[in-house]
Write a structure and sequence with these properties.
By secondary structure, the chain is an alpha+beta fold. Helices cover about 45% and strands about 10% of the residues. The strands form five sheets. Strands 1, 6, 7, 8, 9 and 10 form a six-stranded antiparallel sheet that branches. Strands 2-3-4-5 form a four-stranded antiparallel sheet, with no helix packed on it. The protein binds heme C (7 copies). One heme C binds near residues 282, 299, 311 and 334.
Length: about 675
């Protein structure tokens, strides 16, 4: 990040124009300052001064500062690559979807606000300074880029050490982030660690190089798990085998790798100060990997000078974000077209052999290795879990308990087991609460989400006083129905403290509609609809079309007998989100409640079609058909639903109920 000036700006501001769905933006300079004319929050053209540049290569974004302290990131960015590679042009970060002025992703909106969503990782000594009462920012930073203290913490003791205060340990540096792997010895200096914790350097890098949520103002001397909640390997962010899908940076991938389990760190490959690599080409990997074994045709079966003989071509396939920014998968996995063939996950071979299909690559690998199953067991387990294939539950739980697996993989297996409620699942949750890795304990809380409230609250109580804040916060989410007054006296202070901490962490992100909505859910569960409504009003002020807030507010209206208000809101939601099954389902239920069962059917059918993984939507659709007189069609929908969700008791019971009552006509 830098102040926009002649040194920092890389885009063409020489009256360049850019056309996006009929709106023409113009980039120009005046008296040495940089300006853009583009659509404002009302969809009209307006001139804005550019305050800051953001990023250097392969793209640069621009921030506009508003009088309330908001810094907003323009959706039009400059492609800094050379013209021969297609660069030196303006482009939109959402080229295919028309982001209009009232779209949640418009550059003037909450989701492109740099104070809350960008600057913490791109600056040093960041203080967001959000003032909720005035809905404005007093944001500060020590340096507008990643400086020494972003990795090393406050440097004053290091300065004293440098001036001769030799009694200071670690050169006076606050964080211990040196690499622990010493490849030169030729032997592994440390035993592999099954439950390798994040530790040292990775905790510092992951603060910015991970998909994560800040739980408060980060303190670099504290543990990562006190400062942040690491994003789990959930569907949408990662493929089921753990490959990167959405923009997730590096740490969540690296934690999956055997390298991490063997104490390798980022700085074994990256020079943290210059930004370069420790060696170029395959030499980087041959620092540690036996050249005789790996730098050979026997291993990579391509000519030595072929692009297909580069270690990273097979072991770090890239994926492109923000239009032009290729990022390498840091899970250092074995390329596995056999898994891609059955699971549809990307594979490194056909990424390069674009004229071949995955079956070809899988056949090559089957012939070479004689192996016909995916290399990594979790890939198929997670894919099956996400299809709600109940047969997978025992293996999924066994994986979650397997101490030889990387904790981040065990954690996602545990979290996905929430779909298969059983006594065994509860036992594994209970066991996992004692795991040493906070990722597993936090996943145990998430895994309990489908249990009956009473069971869940009983089970998760040990987490009230967990040593890691990320775990306590994950538990708090599942415990919001607990009442302080309902607990035995000695346990009350712990719960009060937990809820205070939960609210504080939501307050830290009070400028995010997601947090305001979580706060509303907390208040609603605690029996305070007034407070819930005001939190939702705040969420919708930040992002007027934020769907979860709209749906929750409609639900609050319902609870207060105001279905008229709920209906208006849900009509809006359905119009704004044509692809949302949730919005249609909620509106369909409202129709049923208000006596319009026949009209509800189309909405409930659409909801179930848009959210095919949701057994409840299928159930409600079938029931509405039967109740509105279409018994045969309704039973057919329920039968089809039972085939898709053979373990759903509610669907089975509804079918049995209808079958045992004779048709009324
Ligand atoms: C979690 C920390 C984090 C957040 C939040 C974040 N970034 Fe980044 N950003 C990074 C890191 C780290 C990289 C380097 C690439 C990587 O790690 O894969 C990066 C790279 C970039 C780049 C590529 C150009 C370059 O010089 O590398 C741009 C542009 C960028 N970010 C813009 C943004 C914008 C705009 C936002 C907010 C909408 C944002 N970032 C939010 C951490 C973050
Ligand atoms: C991106 C993170 C990062 C930034 C920014 C950074 N460092 Fe470092 N620094 C490291 C890492 C990692 C190491 C350990 C190097 C290794 O493993 O070989 C290190 C090592 C050091 C050491 C050696 C410590 C020792 O025990 O020998 C000093 C001194 C140092 N850094 C000072 C600085 C100064 C001064 C700046 C700013 C100009 C700076 N660093 C910026 C990550 C960073
Ligand atoms: C304060 C947040 C922050 C921390 C902490 C941090 N990084 Fe980064 N890092 C970034 C951002 C942002 C970028 C994108 C480059 C840019 O535009 O400034 C980046 C870029 C990089 C790059 C790519 C450089 C390039 O030229 O492409 C590497 C490698 C990297 N960081 C490694 C590390 C390592 C290793 C650590 C831990 C020792 C670390 N970073 C700690 C924010 C951070
Ligand atoms: C600092 C040492 C070091 C460097 C550098 C290094 N590795 Fe590794 N790598 C290891 C260790 C240690 C293991 C684990 C070996 C084991 O479990 O027996 C490993 C394992 C692997 C695996 C096995 C993964 C699996 O899931 O079975 C692959 C693939 C791999 N490395 C690729 C690479 C590539 C590609 C590079 C270069 C970009 C590289 N390594 C650089 C130390 C290193
Ligand atoms: C053309 C693709 C390709 C290239 C290039 C490639 N590898 Fe591999 N690598 C593989 C495959 C496939 C396997 C799995 C082999 C098997 O299962 O028998 C593998 C396995 C590995 C393993 C794990 C070995 C084990 O026994 O667990 C390491 C480590 C590794 N490669 C390192 C490297 C290094 C270092 C380079 C570069 C010098 C490299 N690879 C280049 C495809 C490649
Ligand atoms: C075994 C070596 C190795 C390790 C360990 C490693 N990286 Fe990388 N990293 C690479 C290579 C190789 C690239 C690709 C560089 C290139 O092509 O210019 C890369 C690229 C990157 C980039 C640029 C964006 C991209 O994906 O191309 C960032 C940022 C980065 N690494 C951060 C990290 C962080 C943070 C860690 C620790 C969590 C880490 N790396 C661990 C080898 C490694
Ligand atoms: C970065 C690009 C790249 C990647 C990744 C790559 N290859 Fe190749 N591959 C090549 C090139 C270039 C050739 C031709 C030159 C040669 O033989 O080295 C080739 C040749 C081949 C050939 C022999 C010629 C043919 O087309 O029948 C086979 C078989 C093959 N690759 C299989 C694979 C498999 C399997 C993988 C994944 C494990 C893979 N390749 C990954 C680039 C790549």
């Amino acid at each position: 990040m830098d102040v926009a000036d002649r040194q920092s700006v890389r885009g063409d501001f020489n009256n360049a124009t850019f056309e996006y769905f009929g709106a023409r933006s113009r980039f120009f300079t005046q008296q040495g300052r940089y300006f853009v004319e583009t659509d404002n929050a009302r969809g009209e053209l307006q001139v804005f001064p550019i305050a800051y540049t953001f990023g250097i290569d392969p793209l640069q974004q621009y921030l506009v500062q508003f009088p309330d302290g908001r810094l907003q990131a323009l959706g039009i960015a400059w492609d800094t690559r050379p013209a021969e590679q297609g660069g030196q042009r303006w482009f939109h970060l959402y080229p295919d979807r028309r982001v209009a002025h009232d779209d949640a992703l418009h550059w003037t909106g909450a989701f492109q606000n740099a104070n809350s969503r960008c600057a913490a990782c791109h600056t040093t000594g960041y203080e967001k300074g959000y003032q909720q009462a005035q809905d404005r920012y007093e944001t500060r930073w020590a340096e507008p880029h990643v400086g020494c203290e972003a990795c090393h913490g406050p440097g004053s003791r290091h300065m004293e050490w440098a001036k001769g205060e030799s009694s200071l340990s670690d050169k006076g540096l606050v964080t211990r982030i040196g690499a622990t792997w010493v490849p030169a010895t030729g032997a592994r200096p440390l035993p592999p660690q099954a439950d390798a914790p994040m530790g040292g350097q990775l905790e510092v890098c992951a603060g910015c190089h991970a998909r994560r949520t800040e739980l408060g103002s980060p303190d670099i001397a504290a543990s990562f798990h006190d400062n942040h909640a690491l994003g789990a390997l959930v569907d949408g962010l990662y493929f089921p085998d753990g490959q990167i899908r959405d923009e997730v940076f590096e740490a969540g991938s690296f934690l999956q790798s055997r390298m991490h389990q063997n104490h390798v760190t980022c700085s074994n490959c990256h020079e943290p100060h210059g930004g370069g690599l420790r060696a170029s080409g395959n030499a980087l990997c041959l620092q540690c990997h036996e050249p005789n074994r790996f730098q050979s045709r026997a291993h990579f079966f391509h000519k030595e000078d072929s692009s297909g003989a580069q270690c990273i071509a097979c072991h770090m396939p890239a994926r492109t974000y923000m239009g032009v920014d290729g990022r390498h998968d840091h899970s250092f996995r074995i390329p596995d077209p056999v898994a891609s063939e059955s699971l549809g996950v990307p594979d490194a071979c056909t990424a390069c052999h674009a004229n071949r299909d995955v079956r070809w690559a899988a056949d090559v690998m089957r012939r070479r290795t004689g192996r016909d199953a995916p290399v990594y067991a979790h890939a198929a387990l997670l894919a099956r879990a996400r299809r709600t294939d109940a047969g997978v539950a025992p293996e999924l739980l066994a994986f979650a308990r397997d101490g030889s697996r990387a904790p981040i993989l065990r954690a996602i297996a545990l979290q996905e087991s929430a779909r298969f409620v059983s006594v065994e699942q509860q036992q594994v949750i209970a066991e996992s609460l004692l795991a040493s890795d906070p990722l597993i304990r936090a996943a145990a809380a998430a895994a309990a989400t489908q249990l009956e409230p009473a069971v869940r609250l009983q089970l998760l109580q040990p987490l009230l006083t967990d040593p890691s804040r990320s775990v306590r916060i994950a538990a708090a989410r599942q415990l919001i129905e607990l009442r302080v007054a309902g607990l035995p006296e000695p346990q009350r202070p712990a719960l009060e403290k937990l809820f205070d901490e939960y609210r504080a962490s939501l307050a830290h992100n009070a400028d995010m509609p997601e947090s305001a909505t979580d706060l509303a859910l907390f208040h609603a569960a605690q029996g305070d609809p007034e407070a819930a409504a005001s939190a939702l009003a705040h969420a919708l002020k930040l992002a007027p079309k934020y769907l979860p807030a709209m749906l929750n507010l409609a639900d609050l209206h319902r609870a207060r007998g105001r279905d008229d208000l709920a209906e208006a809101l849900l009509d809006d939601a359905v119009a704004a989100y044509p692809e949302s099954g949730d919005a249609r389902h909620s509106l369909g239920l409202l129709y049923v409640r208000t006596g319009r069962t026949i009209q509800s059917v189309a909405l409930l059918a659409a909801a179930s079609r848009l959210a095919p993984d949701n057994p409840r939507y299928a159930l409600v659709h079938g029931m509405a058909l039967v109740e509105s007189g279409s018994r045969v069609a309704g039973l057919a929908v329920l039968e089809a639903a039972l085939r898709r969700f053979p373990d759903s008791d509610p669907i089975r019971e509804a079918l049995a109920g209808y079958r045992s009552t004779p048709a009324a006509y």
